[in-house]
Amino acid sequence: MSTYPPFAVAVDLAVFTIRDGALAVLLVERGEEPYAGSWALPGGFVEPDEDAEQAAWRELREETGMERFPGHLEQLKTYSAPDRDPRMRVVSVAHVALAPDLPEPSAGTDAADARWWVVDDLLEGRDDLDGPALAFDHRQILLDARERVRAKLEYTTLATEFVAEPFTLPELRRVYAAVWGAPPDLGNFRRKVLGTEGFVVPTDVRGQATEAGGRRALLYRRGPAQVVSPPMARG
Amino acid sequence: MSTYPPFAVAVDLAVFTIRDGALAVLLVERGEEPYAGSWALPGGFVEPDEDAEQAAWRELREETGMERFPGHLEQLKTYSAPDRDPRMRVVSVAHVALAPDLPEPSAGTDAADARWWVVDDLLEGRDDLDGPALAFDHRQILLDARERVRAKLEYTTLATEFVAEPFTLPELRRVYAAVWGAPPDLGNFRRKVLGTEGFVVPTDVRGQATEAGGRRALLYRRGPAQVVSPPMARG
DNA sequence: CCAAAAGTGTTCCGTATACACCCATGA
DNA sequence: TCATGGGTGTATACGGAACACTTTTGG
């Protein structure tokens, strides 16, 4: 029979939102060693009386400062390399969260600072100064998280988690544009969303016009549908 | 700053194969409390110098008695409910493994017995005697694992992991029939597999005829392709 | 009346679907 | 030559790709 080696179990969070037409992720600046001064995904240890998902919701509330986090949360993958944390053996259950555009976050208790970063600036290895290198194995976690989000937009209704209700179809289309890098074809997009029963439910209200004028778009709310079949076409 | 509560970290394995035209999973009969005499997914604790995936490969070799397990392994999900193990706080990183038809397994060191079970007999809640109830939260893990396999067959080439090389297309088609409950349309199936570059690579050899005669099918090997786009149609 | 943004329609074409039909083999 | 299983062909229709066009609103 094997021994029962002691581990610490943590959760790490890749919290995504759409800011200025780009996919953005919440990072915190670490105040303590190791990696003091580096930027990392928010996270923390799982408490004795909670499971990983509850720990993730708790961290989400703490880091965003919101009583009730208004978005989607799901488990991503568990990272367990023996040397991923130099202090001790830490296994991290990574999660992905999606939220509509949120206010600038405030620094948490154990973080020096917290802010949103454009994901592509962090991950695309361009030499001209972009985002900072990430602490621990968080670059890999962020890569996996972005891929999960990209894939799930194709065959689920998850895009609606990135917009606040009520929302317009052009708003929703800009979510796809931000995540995929290019907007889906306008006509095909509308036929897909409106043709998928339960994707969105229309209201009889129209949104505000922009400064420069233009037709005012109809407002919608999220519908009960979860999957889109066949998948939304990726530009 | 939070405390660092101690956890045990384990891996559990849902090892699938196709036996007699049905999806089957490997279970072990527990020899110790808790749940002594119950059937459970094979698994064990992660050692100090390995990550979860290495632990899963090790358990796979131990449980199947094979030096080199001839199949596919991937992480499924992590289960961490505080009361999932009555002895102590155990977090389990569940994995899914796929293998071609394997010999009857031998009982491992800490298991009283080990055998294959038809998955539907374990999961479909028919009242007439089927499979046994599973230990811990392993019924839920098995449900999630089956769903992962079903889904992945649609948009990946993973079905080839269920057959031993070289294999015929009818053999491969029977994999889909077993997992989905009904075979995909013959013509469409062939066009899909042969039309997806790198799904299979043909040999110039034909397989054996069955007792009752009939045309001998061409033999193929796995190709380098990983994804099938658009997905294989689910009956 | 013009620009900007929302929304509609239409043609083309690949391909999934469903099903009928032909080929090879052993008893 | 018949049953069995492997393999091929085809009419239909759905839906994505691309793009032109119409409608509504503010300046």
A few lines on this structure:
Two copies of one chain form a homodimer. With 235 residues, the first copy, chain A, is an alpha+beta fold.
Unreliable stretches of chain A (pLDDT < 50, length at least 5) are none
Largest interface: A-B, 33 and 33 residues
Label the structural class of chain A: alpha+beta
Number of strands of chain A: 10
Per DSSP, the total helix count of chain A is: 5
Strand content of chain A: 25-35%
Rg calc of chain A: 19 Å
The averaged pLDDT of chain A comes out at: 91
Oligomer: homodimer
The helix/strand series of chain A, from N terminus to C terminus, equals EEEEHEEEHHEHHEE
Helix content of chain A: 10-25%
Shape of chain A: elongated
| Distance between the ends of chain A | 53 Å
Q: How does the major sheet of chain A shape up?
A: 7 strands, mixed
Family (chains A, B): Belongs to the Nudix hydrolase family.
InterPro entries (chains A, B): Nudix_hydrolase, NUDIX_hydrolase-like_dom_sf, NUDIX_hydrolase_CS, NUDIX_hydrolase_dom, WH-like_DNA-bd_sf, WH_DNA-bd_sf, WHD_NrtR
Protein name (chains A, B): NUDIX domain-containing protein
Domain Nudix hydrolase (chains A, B): 6-142
Features:
25% helix; 5 helices; 10 strands; NUDIX_hydrolase_dom (chains A, B); hydrolase (chains A, B); DNA-binding; WHD_NrtR (chains A, B); 28% strand; NUDIX domain-containing protein (chains A, B); Nudix_hydrolase (chains A, B); homodimer; 235 residues
